[in-house]
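Dig into what follows:
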Amino acid sequence: MQRTRAAVQLVHLGRISYSQALHEQQRFVQLHRDRDPSHPAPDALLVCEHPPVYTIGIRQAPYPAEEERRLSLLGAEFFRTNRGGLITFHGPGQLVCYPVLDLRGFGKSVRWYVCQLERTVIGLCGKLGIEASTSPDTGVWVGDNKICAIGIHCGRYITSHGLALNVSTELSWFKHIVPCGIVGKGVTSVSEELGRAVTVEEVLPCLLDSFSEHFGCDVTTTRTQPLPPG
């Protein structure tokens, strides 16, 4: 018998601080952990943009305090997180997507999940006329330039963190770090590849279509703002 397509809520957070986005993710993660088996918690796709912020993941060795101060003086926040991966940048013009999914509902592994995120972004890029691919390094690439960073956390089958696609991001922010710890590679954006200004709003429908295709789910728009204080 064919599996029923999962329903995933779209939660459009707008431009939101990184700390607020972490809070929203944890709220949805907790809904899963506190779930009543007869009333499963909703899977959710949180999408947003961030003000300038550098983040590091759990694979990063202790980041020197002087480096943290140097980056903060540029006008960006700095956060240590529990996602995979090394240092990266988030900022305006970047489409950030945090899926909070119970992988048991998909019957799949973490490895499958990361591969589907990569395929989702490759499919999105294809819809826009950009030829993207994976590489031995993490993320999604256009040639030797990364267009999308991926770093996730999965605890007790519940996912958080996710992907960050450069749409019209000011790429000079990346010059102050070695993005994702990968030496000798560059970064690019949708706008850079298409040679015109592209907005996050223009790209979002392509992301939702590609996510639905690769995860075999239906994305619904039942929530368009952060959860109210609880």
Observations:
- Helices lie at 18-33, 65-73, 110-127, 190-194, 200-215.
